[in-house]
Design a protein that fits this description.
Elements (H helix, E strand, L loop, with lengths): L2 H9 L12 H12 L5 E8 L2 E7 L6 E6 L17 E3 L2 E3 L3 H14 L9 E6 L7 H9 L6 E4 L10 E2 L1 E10 L14 H16 L11 E15 L5 E4 L8 E10 L6 H14 L3 E11 L2 E2 L6 H11 L15 H8 L3 E3 L4 E2 L7 E3 H19 L1
Parallel strand pairs: 3-6, 3-7, 7-15
Antiparallel strand pairs: 1-2, 2-6, 4-5, 5-17, 8-14, 9-12, 9-13, 10-11, 10-12, 16-17
């Protein structure tokens, strides 16, 4: 099975997660593929039910780790191609997960065929990256390996991504006091208060700028409010929408992409609570959905990787880390202090319709991975 066939095979095995589907089948394929390589010890790490990670390593302490997530986002309407029957057109391979990240996974697996033995190679194929990070969290809870370098083969257009912003996601409710809209001073408007507090928070977060990762961003992702009329059978708030009532309830979801480790979920929650309290309202039902910090890997720590890329491409390019979302490699870096970089083939439309990966780039990236293994593990 050549590289293109391997990529097609991975795409052809659905690995999105819902009530009926998960990564089990593609995990079994990867597990059986690795078991055929005599220099690797391969094991499954159970996560829940029939979901598992796969860990493979040679007989030496790990120096180089490849970390590939097995799951994809769910299928979407609007594709021009069958999402699970990989389609080649104009030097591109189309299919769900082709660039995020089954193309990079195929490059990793195919590169292993080059070797009959290695010294310090480790591989992690894990579940649930697109959902709740269960695979990465479980791996880090149970392992304390400290490789010199970890490579995540996401599609990065052959650019090194050596950092990412953190993420704080908060859900909360604000309760105020209703009254007649003609006399707003007699009430406490929950929606107005939320808007004022968010604007204050936006100014506050800009103080936490980082020289490498830039300024943090704040997104008011969800805001719903009005007159509190009770709850429906599912526990959802029933809202009155008449204009003559002062809003006394608001539900909010904020998404903050942090660039400094000094800005965390606890600090944000405290700021919001104090702001709302000063305005005479109350913050309730606070849920900190995510609280992960940023990551930055100095270029001085990845010179060997730069050399492996330059040998293959004749150049080394870095991507713009100031616009990156959160990567779970940050968890690994935080616990293991292993430099974690993202590097993979050219591709596009990840998480969207008509996702694709460049076929020529797949071959180039496979060559880079081979070169890196030779440099570190032989």
């Amino acid at each position: 099975m050549n590289l293109l066939q391997l990529t097609k095979k991975l795409i052809g095995i659905p690995s999105f997660v819902d009530k009926k589907n998960n990564e089990k089948e593609v995990g079994e394929f990867v597990y059986n593929y690795l078991k055929k390589l005599p220099y690797l010890q391969v094991e499954k790490q159970k996560i829940e039910s029939d979901r598992f990670n796969i860990i493979a390593k040679d007989n030496y302490p790990p120096k180089l780790l490849f970390a590939c997530h097995l799951d994809t986002v769910e299928p979407k309407k609007g594709w021009n191609y069958n999402q699970f029957s990989a389609t080649v057109k104009n030097s591109r391979l189309y299919g769900l997960g082709s660039c995020d990240m089954k193309g990079g996974t195929a490059c990793t697996l195919d590169a292993l065929q080059e070797f009959k033995d290695t010294k310090g190679l480790m591989l992690l194929f894990y579940c649930d990256e697109e959902y709740d990070f269960k695979g990465m969290k479980s791996f880090l809870q149970r392992n304390s390996f400290r490789p010199k370098l970890a490579v995540f083969p996401e599609s990065t257009n052959e650019e090194i991504i050596n950092g990412c912003r953190g993420i704080i996601e908060i859900y909360f409710q604000v309760t105020g006091k209703t009254g007649h809209a003609a006399r707003p001073q007699e009430g406490r408007n929950a929606i107005d208060t939320v808007m004022e507090t968010v604007n204050e928070l936006r100014k506050e977060t800009k103080k936490y700028r980082n020289s490498s990762l830039g300024a943090p961003t704040l997104n008011l992702a969800y805001l719903s409010g009005g007159l509190m009329k009770g709850f429906d059978e599912s526990g959802k708030i029933i809202l009155g929408d008449r204009g003559n009532n002062i809003s006394d309830i608001a539900e909010v979801v904020l998404d903050i992409r942090t660039t400094s480790s000094k800005l965390n979920g606890s600090k944000v929650v405290n700021f919001i609570e104090e702001s709302i309290k000063r305005k005479g309202l109350e913050m309730k039902k606070v849920i900190l959905r995510s609280d992960f910090g940023p990551m930055y890997i100095p270029k001085t720590k990845i010179r060997t990787f730069e050399s492996a890329i330059k040998d293959q491409l004749g150049r080394v390019d870095y991507g713009d880390i100031t616009v990156q979302g959160y990567f779970d490699g940050e968890m690994m870096y935080k616990k293991l202090e292993t430099p974690c970089v993202y590097f993979g083939p050219k591709g596009g439309n990840a998480h969207g319709v008509n996702e694709w990966v460049d076929i020529k780039s797949l071959k180039e990236v496979r060559g880079i991975y081979k070169n890196l293994i030779r440099r570190i593990c032989l």
